[in-house]
UniProtKB/TrEMBL annotation:
Belongs to the cation diffusion facilitator (CDF) transporter (TC 2.A.4) family. SLC30A subfamily. GO terms for biological process: intracellular zinc ion homeostasis. This is Cation transporter. Residues 11-202 form the Cation efflux protein transmembrane domain. One of its GO terms (cellular component) is membrane. The chain crosses the membrane at residues 12-31, 37-58, 78-97, 112-132, 144-172, 178-201. The lineage of its organism: Bacteria, Bacillati, Cyanobacteriota, Cyanophyceae, Oscillatoriophycideae. It comes from [Phormidium ambiguum] IAM M-71. It is a multi-pass membrane protein. Pfam families: Cation_efflux.
Amino acid sequence: MTQRRKKSQLLWIVLGMRIILFLAEIGVGLWSRSLSLLAGSGHIFSDLVTLGLTLLAAYLVEHRTGNKEGFKYQRLEIWVAMVNGLSLIAIACLIFWETVTHLQAPELKPSLPMLLVAGLSVAINGANIHLLRNDSHHDLNLRGVFLHGIADAASSLSMMLSALVVYCWHWLWADTVASLFVASLIVWSALSLFLNSFNLLMEKTKEIALI
């Protein structure tokens, strides 16, 4: 199996698991009006779009007809990673804005569904991290998906903690704090991915071809 084909298989597996997680988070988030779950679902939606674009770019690279086209499509993969970073920053800004508005009128939210979905998110992201750990060291887009998995797992742990706090002590601000933490993690992973992508885009043709 070629490295490109292995990459495509990994991305398809991750895509399937993240579709399940997205449906769970957005469904329960809309029902419970949980900011932290909606923030997480927004992050995952961006991941789904980027995974689709990455799979398309990987397919074009694998079926290139010449070195010139291969170089062009490899640059496309880098552009996909850069766009992903920018979209994540935009999502984080929206989360910050919604969080500030909800601070003025906090609401009691069902905490048990939040806890269950957060547990599912930790399990799925843990599986993603395990699948991508080795290959993320030498592929830009796999590294981006790997970093998102780490950020998602950390944000899911914060959602679990906030759900427990709301359930045990009815501290309504806990969900808001968790959503701010999620947004901060999104910004961190987005900036890291964008800067790495930009640096690679500026490098010589030979260095880009080794990605």
